[in-house]
Amino acid sequence: MQQDWTGNSRSAHAMLGARNYAKEEREVNDYYATDPRATELLLELESFAPWIWECACGEGHIAKVLEAAGHHVFASDLIDRGYGLVQDFLATASPPLPGFDIITNPPYSKAKEFVEHAMEIIDPGHKVAMFLKIQFLEGKARRELFMHYPPRVIYVSSGRLRCAMNGDFEKYAKSNAVCYAWYIWEKGFSGETTLRWFN
Question: What's 171's domain CATH number?
Fold first, then answer.
């Protein structure tokens, strides 16, 4: 069963009628792969449930680090990139099984929707960790999100981490990195958000 849930699930893609997408289409879908170091640092800061849902898995840059750390990962993405199952996270009614935490770098244009949906469907006491630009703190609509779902903690990267368009870290190795943060929500938390720095 775990084999069906992790990377290189070509048979699952075929059953679902998925197709490969060109680079131009991937850009449209906001695919910016996460530096694996960002997830390694997250695991030094936070503990998570044994079962993790990586719901915008891309080519597995986050999921592979989680698996290497001993987590069971259900990896899915709207687009077939050769890793995980093809699934529209925003259309799902519940996690694959009870007891999941959610860790992902969502498409930035849909980040607010990803946070809201994740918080709606996870079980009380479980965590949602999103790797997002520091600018996600801005904006009236997102202020309403933070008022309704206050993060338990936000870890701001004091060193710059990279997200590579279409997963091409070699091509973007010399580009200026952006300031990112790990935003951590815990369902049922209602206190003041803590701000911390890492890296």
Answer: 3.40.50.150
